[in-house]
Write a structure and sequence with these properties.
alpha+beta; nine-stranded antiparallel β-sheet
Length: 288
């Protein structure tokens, strides 16, 4: 099995190849118009097409290097992460191809439906008698103005599910979007607490106002705001029956490495921090 240095050397090769491909593409782009002018003046009309071929070739080289890096990252995760996770929480599993089902995520109400959905890097197990499940989720929206189409990443981050023994007093959603409409939460009513700061931090939707206030006690709201600040206002939470869903917008693949990030000195640190986060969240919600 490859060691860390083997992965670093292979990543560096792909990075060099990508850089060469991008350089070729850039040069071809710069010289395209001049080549058309020179070709037209000398009767060599094929010259701009040759330059265009270099442009496409450079893009293909860079694209293949990027794809190989993704494969390398997946190989690293398969070889190292399952064992690391099991050592930190015995009985837990890590599957790079596993993830949340799309239907479950949208039913959780922490995220709303978009045109494209993907989920990977599933980590699940049990800690302190609370079952947990967490995976990367990416949502993308395809937008068109009639002339061009763009794909916008609406959410990229980690979704966490905690399964408690008893159901909560009511179904409750704490959402980051400030201007979200009630139509996105059928059967829920929008409520406000006596805390102005908490109302600023979250849009609150509940199926039962009395049940919501049984959950949202002053000390608990204060702790939730601290949690919100810890994650830089990028957290949404839903209490559904006995399940708690948490969406953390991080704008990155949690365990992947690429040309920009490289392989850190301690490549398993991300696993440790995620496991510690799970333990922290279980303790936070179970004993509050």
């Amino acid at each position: 099995m490859k060691n860390i240095d083997d992965y670093r050397r292979e990543l560096e090769r792909y990075k060099t190849t990508s850089r060469r491909g991008m350089t070729l593409t850039l040069l071809a782009f710069i010289f395209f118009i001049p080549s058309a002018m020179v070709g037209a003046s000398n009767g060599f009309f094929i010259l701009p097409f040759i330059v265009m071929a270099f442009f496409m070739g450079g893009a293909i080289i860079a694209g293949r290097a990027s794809m190989k890096t993704k494969v390398l990252s997946n190989e690293f995760k398969e070889n190292y992460l399952p064992k690391a996770v099991e050592e930190l929480i015995p009985g837990s599993t890590f599957n790079i191809h596993g993830g949340f089902d799309e239907t479950e995520i949208y039913k959780s109400l922490v995220l709303h439906r978009q045109d494209r959905y993907a989920s990977e890097d599933l980590l699940q197990g049990e800690w302190d008698n609370v079952a947990f499940k967490t995976a990367d989720v990416v949502l993308r929206d395809v937008r068109s103005n009639g002339k061009s189409t763009t794909v916008v990443t609406v959410f990229q981050g980690r979704v966490i599910r905690l399964d408690f023994e008893k159901p909560f007093d009511t179904d409750l959603c704490l959402i980051q979007q400030r201007y979200v409409s009630s139509w996105a939460f059928p059967g829920y009513e929008r409520i406000k607490t006596e805390s102005i700061d908490f109302n600023r931090a979250f849009s609150i939707f509940s199926k039962n106002e009395l049940g919501a206030f049984k959950i949202l006690k002053p000390d608990f709201m204060e702790r939730l705001m601290g949690l919100d600040q810890k994650f830089n206002d990028q957290i949404s939470i839903s209490f559904l029956s006995n399940k708690l869903y948490i969406a953390l917008k991080t704008n990155r693949d949690t365990f992947d490495f690429d040309f920009k990030t490289g392989i850190p000195n301690n490549p398993l640190e991300e696993v440790h921090s995620n496991v510690e986060l799970i333990k922290e969240l279980i303790s936070f919600f179970k004993y509050n």
